[in-house]
């Protein structure tokens, strides 16, 4: 039976095959997106691809992509042909929870500029309802974060401020992350997403609704393509 790492790699290779010479590509973050960046590097080195530029969604992906010889450009107002990224949960509509790797804000900024968002994952990420397994990461500014967490509690969020090495985890943007739970699954994800955006102190949340256009999900039976659909946001 293939290891999770191999499944992630298989899904990533399928998505990276969609990249053509001359494309502008959003580069995701995490243990699955890493394989897509490595595969793009391989394709460039072996002459299968030329002239692509990448917009990374984290400092880690920026460093990895540069090491792979991918030309990096600023997001600015660029329109991207394609973005490839992992996810923490994928529901049957291709709505997602993202941000376990802490990169949700830049991921959303980059992936909203992409004509297509291709999600890569192993089958452990598939859920019937968002929030079944993963907490919802919410990025909050550090200033007065206690009062922001109190506002989130008023919305029904229970959870913890993310830590790393005994210290509060700090994102590439200098903020904290609150990993929120809302009971057994999220209530209405669209309503929750709106409320979170209206909460002072919240920078971004990990609900990616109507954004993914396609997914490659790997299991021991192979890679299943969840076909393209149009974006609604
Ligand atoms: O902030 C991190 C991202 O949203 C990742 O894409 C997500 O956490 C999935 O990561 P992984 O592929 O490591 O499971």
Automatic annotation (TrEMBL):
Pfam families listed in its UniProt record: Rib_5-P_isom_A (PF06026)
Pathway(s) of this molecule: Carbohydrate degradation; pentose phosphate pathway; D-ribose 5-phosphate from D-ribulose 5-phosphate (non-oxidative stage): step 1/1
Catalytic activity, as annotated: aldehydo-D-ribose 5-phosphate = D-ribulose 5-phosphate
EC number(s) stated in the UniProt entry for this protein: 5.3.1.6
Chain coiled-coil ranges: none
Residues engaged in binding substrate: 29-32, 85-88, 98-101, 125
Keywords tagged on the record: Isomerase
Keyword set includes Isomerase: yes
Catalytic residues (UniProt): 107
Annotated InterPro entries: NagB/RpiA_transferase-like (IPR037171), Ribose-5P_isomerase (IPR050262), Ribose5P_isomerase_typA_subgr (IPR020672), Ribose5P_isomerase_type_A (IPR004788)
GO molecular function list: ribose-5-phosphate isomerase activity
Taxonomic superkingdom: Bacteria
Complexes and interactors: Homodimer.
UniProt record similarity statement: Belongs to the ribose 5-phosphate isomerase family.
Protein name (database record): Ribose-5-phosphate isomerase A
Species per Swiss-Prot/TrEMBL record: Deinococcus yavapaiensis KR-236
């Amino acid at each position: 039976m293939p290891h999770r790492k191999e499944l992630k790699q298989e899904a990533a290779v399928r998505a990276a095959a969609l990249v053509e010479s001359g494309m502008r590509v959003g580069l995701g973050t995490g243990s699955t997106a890493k394989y897509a960046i490595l595969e793009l590097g391989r394709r460039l080195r072996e002459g299968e691809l030329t002239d692509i530029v990448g917009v990374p969604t984290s400092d880690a992906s920026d460093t990895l992509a540069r090491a792979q010889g991918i030309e990096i450009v600023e997001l600015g107002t660029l329109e991207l042909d394609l973005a490839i990224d992992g996810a923490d949960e994928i529901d049957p509509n291709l709505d997602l929870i993202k941000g376990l790797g802490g990169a949700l804000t830049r991921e959303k900024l980059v992936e909203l500029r992409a004509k297509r968002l291709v999600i890569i994952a192993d089958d452990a990420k598939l859920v019937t309802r968002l929030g079944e397994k993963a907490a919802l990461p919410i990025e909050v500014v550090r200033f007065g974060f206690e009062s922001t967490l109190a506002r989130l509690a008023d919305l029904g969020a229970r959870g913890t401020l993310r830590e790393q090495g005994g210290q509060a985890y700090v994102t590439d943007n200098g903020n904290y992350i609150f990993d929120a739970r809302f009971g057994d699954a999220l209530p209405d994800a669209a309503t929750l997403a709106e409320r979170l955006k209206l909460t002072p102190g919240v920078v971004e949340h990990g609900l990616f609704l109507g954004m993914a256009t396609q997914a490659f999900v790997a299991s021991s039976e192979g890679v299943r393509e969840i076909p393209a659909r149009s974006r609604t946001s």
